[in-house]
Amino acid sequence: MPELLNPQEKLTPDTFLRGLWEENPVFVMLLGMCPVLAVTSTTLNAIAMGLATTFVLVCSSLLVSLLRDWIPKQVRIASYIVIIATFVTIVDYAIQAISLELYAALGAFIQLIVANCVILGRAEAYASKQRLHTTLVNSLGMGAGFTLALLALGTVREVLGNGTLLGVHLFSPDFQPWIVMILPPGGFFVLGVWLLLFNWLRQSKVRRAAQFSGAPADAR
Amino acid sequence: MHAEPLSLIFLNAAIVNNFVLALFLGICPFLGVSGKKETAWNMGLATMFVMLVSSAAAYGINWLLTQLGLEFLRLICYIAVIASAVQLVEMFVKKTSPALFRSLGIFLPLITTNCAILGLALFQTSKEYDFVQSLVYALGAGVGFTLALMLMAGLREKLSLARVPSVSQGAALSLMLAGLLSLAFMGFAGLGGGHG
Amino acid sequence: MTTEVQIQPQAATTPAWAMLRTLGGIALLSGLLVALVYQFTLPIIAENQRVLTEKAVFRVLPGAVGKRDFVITPEGGLAPAETGASGDLIYGAYDADGRLLGLAITGSGPGYAGPVKVMFAYDPGCDCITGSKVLQSNETPGFGDKLDFDPDFLKNFEALDARLDAAGTALANAIVTVKHGTKSEPWQIDAITGATISSKAMGRAANSAAQRAVPAIERDLAVLTSPPSP
């Protein structure tokens, strides 16, 4: 019966790749921005956050997909939230067990993964309607896209704001780091610039496609 | 920290460590709802209300869980209570002002995933504020959030009349603006922070 | 041709019990999962914490090879942590011969971006703080880092006066941070130029740590040097 209402997606490479480019959660769907701005002052934090979020995304999506036929519509959001909160708590303890220093660096934002609209959004829009294997691949793609966005910010901010990459000094000691990059305004600026770049790339792609097909280019 | 005066807590939450511009919480609604001053104002008020309710509930839940030794369930309980508070606000707004309900649209239920509210609950717990301090903290956070939203809305309303390059339209420009606002707010650092 | 349409177990109006059953089931599953992971990771996290604390203690008191935990009792004295007493922790650092090298005490002060937690080394022999190590801070990189690395700032903590007053219940002179270049007393800390807030946080951390721990240390010095119970 679900087949009629929810067309089951076939597993293709696109299922994974969508999350990286076309449906990149941060740059395209503009979701989950709070952690992107907050924990990207160093590349290591960005990677750790990306991995933690991907873990929660994949696990909760899998569980939601598994239970999708048993969750009544009215309580679905509440159910998804509880499931997501469970895995976030698990990841929270896992990180503490792995490295307390990393945990201190990421701060409250590990627990705030719960409020990451990407995860709830995917559970609602995808995991609740699709089968296990497609959900798994799609979540991995989304998580990868999210991690990529985090990396994009983390590397730029760390290199410009601290002169290091993953703690390794890149420039001579005379390099005056652009401290503002590590501070909150820097986060906003760098994300803004990345979005600008992303938009420009997408627009030129649309323009080129329109040129080939002869249709009027819709710049948005 | 227990001796922190209430005025300081309020100032801290609203301005010095503004939830949006300094702590990066509540960015999604900040970018999504700050197009017009009216919607921004309503959203700010709705969020502040949810913050106050959640803050009080979180304080109670934390006390209960500590008594029972079940601290590991804290996160799940917090988000559950926030979701319920949002449901309440939704029903309230729908009954009292259907026009407002329509104008806020999808963003009203999305208050649940507003990291600012969950962040508020988590911070007040880690700072070990007592009940009154928690409420003042929530009030300050709500005011700060509304302030940031209103500032952004004012700027964006003016900007909508100007010509901007199409690549930067939308979120990219809002983020640049937010960066400038954040830079400005950094000037408040240390305000009142030297005492207490 | 009849199409077999499977009606979902829950009809258009979902019975309340179905909703409750789902929520209850999920809540149970969640609680179970979290409880399991919590129990599993608890010892690992405790060990991590212990290692981290030990590293910090050995850093502020070089030459130490052993540490013992003590608790500041509500009466203002000290008790070995093994006795199960509850209160603020301080750490005794001992060399290879079991002699007390000093105490490691912790305090925190409000910094620019949150509390700054610091560990200080206290030497009962000179009634002064002899070292410092920032445990946790979110201070601005480049400014807050200086708290641990600026040589001039660190000099403040080589012999920071922490003598007790006549009653022995508080410091004779509270530790305080003063403007850069205006330090005139051994209990003052010269702030770092351009990082006043972080420096003040450090001063408050030192004062808070000393006010709490030094009276107890001086009162029960014998507890620190007595051999540990088997």
Short description:
The complex is a heterotrimer of chains A (220), B (196) and C (230). In chain B, 69% of the residues lie in helices and 0% in strands.
Can you tag this structure with a few keywords?
heterotrimer; A: mainly alpha; two-stranded antiparallel ribbon; 2 strands; flat; B: mainly alpha
Topology:
The complex is a heterotrimer of chains A (220), B (196) and C (230).
Chain A: H1 2-5, H2 13-17, H3 33-38, H4 43-66, H5 76-98, H6 100-106, H7 117-127, H8 132-162, E1 164-165, E2 168-169, H9 184-213
Antiparallel strand pairs in A: 1-2
Helix pairs in contact in A: 4-5, 4-7, 4-8, 5-6, 5-7, 7-8, 8-9
Chain B: H1 6-16, H2 27-32, H3 37-68, H4 74-96, H5 98-104, H6 115-126, H7 131-159, H8 171-185
Chain C: H1 16-60, E1 66-72, E2 78-80, E3 88-94, E4 100-111, E5 114-123, E6 128-136, H2 146-149, H3 151-155, E7 160-161, E8 176-178, E9 188-190, H4 196-219, H5 221-225
Parallel strand pairs in C: 8-9
Antiparallel strand pairs in C: 1-2, 1-3, 3-4, 4-5, 5-6, 6-7
Descriptive report:
The complex is a heterotrimer of chains A (220), B (196) and C (230). By secondary structure, chain A is an all-alpha fold. Chain A is 64% helix and 2% strand. Chain A has 9 helices and 2 strands; from the N terminus they run H-H-H-H-H-H-H-H-E-E-H. Chain A has helices at residues 2-5, 13-17, 33-38, 43-66, 76-98, 100-106, 117-127, 132-162, 184-213; strands at 164-165, 168-169. Chain A has a two-stranded antiparallel sheet with strand order 1-2. In chain A, helix 4 packs across helix 5. The radius of gyration of chain A is 19 Å and the shape is flat. Helix content of chain B is 69%, strand content 0%. Chain C is an alpha+beta fold and 230 residues long. Chain C has one domain (47-225). Chain C is 36% helix and 24% strand. Chain C contains 5 helices and 9 strands. Chain C has helices at residues 16-60, 146-149, 151-155, 196-219, 221-225; strands at residues 66-72, 78-80, 88-94, 100-111, 114-123, 128-136, 160-161, 176-178, 188-190. In chain C, the strands form 2 sheets. A 7-stranded antiparallel sheet of chain C has the order 2-1-3-4-5-6-7. Chain C has a two-stranded parallel ribbon with strand order 8-9. Classes of the chains: A mainly alpha (220), B mainly alpha (196), C alpha+beta (230). Chain A binds chain B through residues 30-35, 37-38, 77-78, 81-82, 85-86, 88-89, 92-93, 108, 111-112, 114-117, 120, 180, 183-189, 191-193, 195-196, 199-200, 203, 219-220, and chain B through 21-28, 31-32, 72-73, 75-76, 79-80, 83, 109-110, 112-115, 117-119, 122-123, 126, 166-176, 178-180, 182-183, 186.
